Structure formats: C-alpha cells, structure tokens
What we know:
Layout: H1 3-6, E1 20-23, H2 28-40, E2 46-52, H3 58-73, E3 78-82, H4 117-141, E4 146-148, H5 153-166, H6 170-174, E5 179-183, E6 186-189, H7 197-207, H8 223-238, H9 242-276, E7 292-296, H10 297-301, H11 305-318, H12 328-340, E8 350-355, E9 359-363, E10 367-371
Parallel strand pairs: 1-2, 1-4, 2-3, 4-6
Antiparallel strand pairs: 5-6, 7-10, 8-9, 9-10
Amino acid sequence: MQSHQLLDQWPRDKWRDRRLVIAVSGGPDSVALLLATAELAPQSQVLAAHFNHHWRGDQSNADQAWVEQLCAEHNIPCITGSAAATPQQPLPPDLNQFDSSGCIQTAMLAWQEGEPDEVRVRSEEHARAERYAFLTRVAYGHGASYVVTGHTADDRVETLLHNLLRGTGLAGAAALRMFRPLDRDLVLVRPLLTKTRGDVMSFLSQRGQAFRTDASNTDQSYRRNFLRGSVLPLIDQNYPQAKDHLLRFAQLTESMLVDCEVLAERWLLDVEHSVGSGVASRPAGLWPNTHYWVAPRSALRSQVWSIVREALRLTWLRRKWPLGAMTHTHWEALRQQFCEATPPLLDQTRVAMQLPGGLQLEHNREYWAVGQPPIAGAGTKTGSSHAPE
C-alpha cells in the first residue's frame, strides 16, 4: 500500500501548505501515519509529537527514545512532553484530586493493582485530556492548523462497542469522528479511520519498518483490551461482516449528528439574538451574567428536544463544563424540566435542579438558565429577584 492510498480519505490538496502535528506513540498506527504523511509533504510541514505518560516506567522512556530516533532518521522534527512520574501507592480517596470533568488527576492510579475498574476508566480519560492538551500547545506553538492521530477503523469499532456498553448518546455512537474541532483555531484529524490494522501492517511490512509494542495492550483486565482480545474475535466468528456493519453504523450516526449540530447551532444563534436584542424581557439576576446560558421559555417550547439537547451538549463543551459527568438521568431530568415544569407565579428566579460541577438549572416566568451561581455574598440569594449586574 502506498502513502496516498493510506491517506486517501484526506488527500494532500486538503492540507497543502498547512503545518501538521502528528501524534506518535511508537505503535504501528502512528508510525505508519507519520511516514505516509512525511512521504507526501515537505519536511518543514510535518512535526511529530510524543507524550510520555510514564505509566510503564523504563518501557515508556524507551518508547520516547525510539520515537525520537525514528524522527531523527527521517529528518522529522520531534517535540516530546511528559506527565508526572507514576505514584508507588494509590492515594487515599479523600486525597485524590479531580479535574472539571470529574477525572482523577493522578492518572497513573489506573495501573496500580487492585484499583476498581471505574477508577481505571476515569484515569484513562484524564490521560487522554492531558495528551490532547499537550498536542494543542505544540500545534499553537509551531503554527500548525491540524493535529493528526492514527486511529483506524478497528479503533472506531472498539470505541463504538465500548461506548454502547457503557451507555452513550449520539456523540458516543458516532465514535471517533474523522474531523472535529480541537480548539478554536485547531482541527483534529483521523485520516486512517477507514483503514484497518491489516492495512497499516501491510504498509509497514512493505517498508520493513519496525514499531513499538505496548505490552499493557494485552492486559484484558482493561475493558477495551477485553473487547479487542475476547469479544470481537467471538463476534467475527459468528458474524463475519459485523465490523463492516458496526463501522457503517458509526458513519451513519456521525452524519446524523453533523445535521443535528447544524440545526442546534442555528437555534443557539436564534436564542442568543432573542436574549441579546431584548425580544423577550431580560431575566432579573440572570442577565447579563456570563456564568449562565440563558434561553427564553418560548424558544424551548418551539424546538424539539433532540435539537435542544444537542445545543446544550455544544454549550457544555464550549464552556468546559463537566460533560462526562452528565448521565442519562441528568439529561432526562433536564428534558422534563424544560418541557413540563410550571413557571413560578411571581417574577422570581428559582432553582429547579442541581447539576454536576456545581452547575444549577434556574428559571422564572420567562427564562431558563443553566450555570454557576454567584459566589455567596456577591449577589442576592436564589429564590428572590436579582438585580441586573
């Protein structure tokens, strides 16, 4: 397989003259991605980035050294970053620190014996967030437009199953979209999403190119490894076309989600205009408090819930609220409040429900608002009319 064939879903004319940051772990997928991209682009256009989580001690350091050597051999600039060293013992629960997404900041706890599975999942989520934060810094620091990762079709199928079994909405079912915003001026691209691991291995084999193997990927005490090593082989035996069908389902879901996002964006603009232009009277105490997302009751009544929910999901992402902590129960409670709750009789603002991350849903006769309440003593108490700021 040639480089242009491996990257045929993201041909060069789509990223010509743009700086690219390629995330390189040392595994086969990222190595194939790096070499294919470097073969198609000038050296000055491609930058490798490797993040060392220190989860496997000397093996992690060896991975970093190997990636640096690979880049040196191919004259590709390489930027490396690292996390804190792995703690020797799990911290007591009352000493664990959590970030705004509810993820344990001491991510290496995931690799301690005896840790509950849920702690492992949260740790992996934080590690991913830490890695993408590093890639974002590298991209902005070197004038890149794209961060590129080597996720394949196999990764997409595994992620889809993982999300479905844990419980997910449309975003989780879309499972690893090929393009998504990573930041305001930065796009994350996964150009290998239609290629299998077999395609990747064929590409590397033709070039006699070695790669690193992470021994922890075979540890089936981790959910994704269990899916990869035990569940998917059994599915393949009984449903030979299952991976193709699951991949197609993820692609169809992504297409539907994109359409929902377009409609949600339009609705959010309409809501912003109606609030900002004074079409509806300004809500006492909630305007113009930037800690809140505010919507008139009339706008909520005139829109179907699926679009409202997608608009709220986008709002959570943009305001960096803890989206991962929002369960199906939370979303269902929001739907019931928006669709069924009776407004207060007086012109007062009331708290309808508490949400993860210190957020709360408030409402009065004309408006709903979601956000973080003012610091105690900085304003009037909830339940009475607030003075506009």
